[in-house]
Structures are given as C-alpha cells and as structure tokens.
Design goal:
Elements: E1 2-4, H1 10-14, H2 18-21, H3 36-41, E2 58-61, H4 73-79, H5 91-101, E3 106-113, H6 130-136, H7 140-158, H8 162-183, H9 186-200
Parallel strand pairs: 1-3
Antiparallel strand pairs: 2-3
Helix pairs in contact: 6-8, 7-9
C-alpha cells in the first residue's frame, strides 16, 4: 500500500487518465512515443485534464517512492536491501520494482493523503516538464546521480523492447537538446550526457566529481 503524495503523483492528482499517468515499459525518463499525442492534446485549452473529476480509490503502480510505502515485514525480508551503488537517487524505483517483479502488487491509495515536510527537487510543480527539471532544477550532484541511475534502470531493468527503447531515447534526447538550447543550459546538458552514458554502461557507485 502506498500513501498519496499529490506532488509525486501529480498526473493522477490532475485527473490524467491512468493509461497516460503510469510509466510505460521501454520508456526513457518517462517518455514514450505512444503517449506523445496525449501530451500535446492536454496542453490545448480543450484537452486539459479535469482535476474536478473524482480520482479512483486505488491505482496499481509498477513501482513507487519510499514515502508512504507500507507492507508486511516479510515482504521487505524477501526483497532485501536497496542497491547501495545507486546512492539514494532513483534507488526507490529499483527497490519497489522488486515487489511487483516478484509477483506482488503496489496500490496507491488516493484516500490516504500525505503531507511532505520538504518537497523533492524534481517534482512537476517546480518545472513545466521533465526536460526543464533536469536542465534547470537542483544541484549538479542531484542531477548527475538522478540521471545516471534513471538511465541505468530504464535500459537494464525497465526496457522490454530494445527497438522501442532506442526510439524513445532518440526522441527524448532531441527534445532535451532543444530545451537546453532554449534555456542556455549547455553545461548541464553535458553533465546529463555523461551521467546517462555512465548509467547505460553500468558505471554506478560514487563518482569522484560528485562526493556525497
């Protein structure tokens, strides 16, 4: 069971249909071409999600955050400890994926809201999209580890179709470079390129340029 954190489940809170609010397999940093038409549609005046509509009581998720996660201790014994090499960024994604990959289910309970004492650096409320979040948000340290670990997870865990993954990755990078040019974020773009290269090559653990 997972408590509801509107800042982390922003699409669900905004009334986005569940088939678009939940990350698809073989996506890259959450981007999947199959969802692009809806992403364009929702930005039009007549396509905006209806937050006034009642949310479903429970939403099944493939993975989750640590915050608000409740389960029997036998489950935690079964899945073990978080992966130390990820160094606290996106480690909850990999850790909770073990739950569903092992045959169990994670349900987000929208009637169990949580109040965060401090918001995460890359929530949707802080930026207009994932590209600006990585290019403009947080410190270089956070951006590096988050991007590196996400790239590792997407390629080596989450990808189901190599062709689909590569296509989504290509389009994501085109959009990322476009936003970097518009935001004059060349140095951060180079950092992200290096981080993603490390993640895809399984070069994890602590990076000497970004000590914790």
């Amino acid at each position: 069971m997972l408590g509801f954190r509107p800042s982390h489940q922003a699409d669900i809170a905004a009334g986005v249909p569940l088939r678009y609010a939940v990350q698809r397999r073989s996506s890259f940093f959450g981007f999947h071409m199959a969802q692009l038409p809806y992403k364009i549609w929702r930005r039009l005046p007549w396509g905006q999600p209806q937050a006034s509509q009642p949310m479903p009581e429970m939403v099944q998720l493939p993975f989750a955050t640590y915050g608000g996660l409740l389960a029997h201790r036998s489950l935690y014994r079964k899945i073990g400890l978080p992966l130390d090499a990820l160094k606290l960024y996106a480690d909850d994604t990999e850790y909770t994926w073990r739950i569903t990959d092992g045959g169990a289910k994670i349900f987000l309970v929208t009637g169990a809201p949580l109040d965060d004492l401090e918001d995460s650096w890359n929530i949707k409320a802080r930026s207009r999209n994932v590209y600006e979040s990585y290019l403009l948000g947080g410190s270089d340290l956070r951006a590096f580890y988050a991007a590196r670990n996400q790239a590792w997870f997407d390629k080596h865990v989450w990808a189901r179709s190599t062709l689909s993954y590569r296509f989504n990755r290509l389009v994501f990078f085109c959009l990322l470079r476009l936003y970097a040019w518009r935001c004059d974020a060349g140095p951060r773009l180079r950092l992200l390129n290096n981080a993603i290269r490390d993640g895809e090559a399984r070069v994890l653990s602590l990076h000497k340029a970004y000590p914790l």
